[in-house]
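User
Take a look at the entry that follows and flag anything odd:
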Amino acid sequence: MQIDAVRIWAGEAQPVFICGIERSGTSMLQLALARHPALFAVPDVYETFMFATPEAILREPAPGMAVAYLGGERQLEWFRARYAVAGLGDDDLIRAFFHFAAHTVYPGQRPLEKTPSHVRQLARIFKLFPRARVIVCTRDMPAVVASYRKRMASEQAMGLPREVWGWMDRSTEALITHCLTVAEQVRAAATTHGAQMYVAPYAWLTADAPAALAALCAFAGLAPCDALLAPKPRQQSRVDSLLTRPIGPREASPADGAADAHEQAVVRARATALPPLWDTPGSLQALVGVNPASPTTV
């Protein structure tokens, strides 16, 4: 396949990318949207990191979740045989990755992908896919801190090695800084692409999932779909058992208080620095202002 054809496809494609703050519902939202017949039927929670480290897909061993996203090792071999040509730059490698997935792994469907840290790659996302729709997941900052603590404790209790849970081992100050940095990255991207970005706060998404998912479908140019509210069809053992259930209200558990009262008070005080876009659902065009330079909508 000529790379020019891949570039043309990327310019016309209408992918849906999910990013934002970790522990804010990105996984459950990806699993729900993957049930929509118009989007990639990604079978599980796979974070490709393609916009951050595209060259990793050509290294040995390739990142496990990116390989799973492509459907396994055999498809990875096909991808490399077709696209891993000498001199292919990172941008074209990213385009080719999603082009391959759209034509070989999930034919006839629009790209769907979620990697929370791609919030730092928004400029590249819109450069390569000018008709993309980006859903940014956010969450009340004290709840983010508590969720980090709870998840890390669960994985430690299971005896998992540090390389699995080490990314969650952050100080309170580091988590606060991370949330504030993500908010600034979102705000900056919204000044030019606000019409193509939609904030989905965790509390909004779980309080009334039917209404929230209907709004997100409308934003992405998708028809309403009841399947989004179905439970995960393939039950399996996982640290976060909530991912096997439909999106809906999440009951608090004793472990949800993993961040103690003092820590929560400190975090809540610092959370006042977050902009309104952090906990207000909706298109960022309305929150940031009209940006007439935005590309053609879906």
Summary: The chain has two domains: 12-42+111-288, 46-105.
